[in-house]
Design brief:
There is one protein chain. With 304 residues, this protein is an alpha/beta fold. The protein folds into two domains: 4-107 and 287-303, 2-Layer Sandwich (Nucleotidyltransferase, domain 5), CATH 3.30.420; 121-283, Nucleotidyltransferase, domain 5 (2-Layer Sandwich). The chain is 37% helix and 21% strand. The chain has nine helices and twelve strands. It has helices at residues 40-52, 90-98, 108-119, 178-182, 184-193, 203-211, 215-239, 255-269, 289-303, and strands at residues 4-10, 14-21, 26-33, 59-66, 70-71, 76-77, 103-107, 128-133, 137-143, 146-148, 243-247, 279-282. A hairpin with a 4-residue loop joins strand 5 and strand 6. Helix 5 crosses helix 7, helix 6 (203-211) crosses helix 7 and helix 7 packs across helix 8. The longest helix is centred in the last third of the chain and has 25 residues, at 215-239. The radius of gyration is 19 Å and the shape is globular.
Length: 304
């Protein structure tokens, strides 16, 4: 009988829960939209019970990949874009709900980096920067073939690196963060400020309009891609690594986003001689990277 992990991927827009088996097949997936719930934990609790009731396989534990920052020492999270969760005791909450002693917490982009390194676009490399580019922007690192969490679990908190100290005030409180220019909602807001009209107010529509030739949409996406490219280049020059894997909703926009992003990365890196042959790749596991990476945290703990 295949053993299962309950995987939880916590993003600013939605939370995905699913079971993942030892062959990394995903089943019983449920998605919860954050803005629809005043009591978010109650929604997560109900989804968890819905998934786990009646499953015959052994559940080894819960793997969580969450938007940050994290507080690994106490097993809690304070996602910048989920205001109702501040120092929320996510680990204790799942332990109490399911009676399981193995609950492993990672950053959401750390989970993506772990999954893509093991199974996806980062296979075979020793060093990797993984990124989630969506409602928020997060980073995760593989160094010397291993997940690198840093001292607090927040290594490569790249969305909140400032690239303009007199710039836009970010939700985190700093000015000029990468996320303030390069996340999906921020690009939409900047476009609207320049006269772009939209019924859905979504990055999906902004990207579609860019493909249709909208000058505002093309301009704003180019600027957002440049902001991200500066953040990426700053991280790569600090770490001296050359492989980046991007997942998240914005990263799924196709060439209207990827072409300017790659061009800006090359342009920014040309000033640093040792950054040659940078590889910026889309996540191969796409929307499932976070869930698989969260599950890997548990499977690896059981295998050690």
């Amino acid at each position: 009988m295949s053993r299962q992990v309950l995987a939880v991927d916590i993003g600013a827009t939605k939370i995905a829960l699913a079971t993942v088996n030892e062959e990394f097949c995903i089943s019983h997936k449920v998605e919860i939209y954050v803005h629809e719930h005043e009591n978010l934990w109650e929604a997560v609790r109900e989804a968890t019970l819905q998934i786990t009731m009646g499953i015959g396989e052994e559940i080894l534990g819960v793997g969580i990949g969450s938007a940050g920052p994290l507080h690994l020492g106490i097993g809690s999270i304070s996602p910048v874009n989920i205001k109702q969760w501040r120092t929320f005791p996510i680990v204790d909450s799942f332990e109490e709900l399911l009676g399981l002693s193995t609950v492993v917490l990672h950053g959401d982009a750390m989970a993506l980096a772990h999954a893509e390194h093991r199974l996806g676009a980062g296979r075979g490399v020793s060093h990797l920067l993984g990124m989630v580019v969506s409602t928020g922007i997060g980073g995760g690192l593989i160094l010397n073939g291993r997940v690198f969490t840093g001292e607090s679990g927040n290594a490569s908190f790249i969305g909140h690196h400032t690239i303009n100290f007199d710039g836009i005030k970010c939700a985190c409180g700093r000015h000029g963060c990468v996320e303030s220019y390069a996340s999906g909602p921020r690009m939409v807001a900047i476009a609207e400020g320049r006269g772009w009209k939209s019924d859905s107010r979504s990055f999906i529509e902004l990207a579609a309009d860019a493909r249709s030739g909208s000058d505002i949409a093309i301009e704003v996406i180019d600027e957002g891609a440049r902001a991200l490219a500066i953040g990426i280049t700053n991280a790569l020059t600090t770490l001296d690594i050359r492989t980046v894997v991007l997942g998240g909703g914005v990263a799924q926009a196709g060439e209207v986003y990827w072409k300017p992003l790659r061009e800006h990365v090359v342009n920014e890196a040309r000033f640093t001689d040792f950054l040659a042959d940078i590889q910026v790749k889309p996540a191969e596991l796409e929307r499932d990277s976070g869930l698989i990476g969260a599950a890997l945290g548990v499977f690896d703990e059981w295998s050690n």
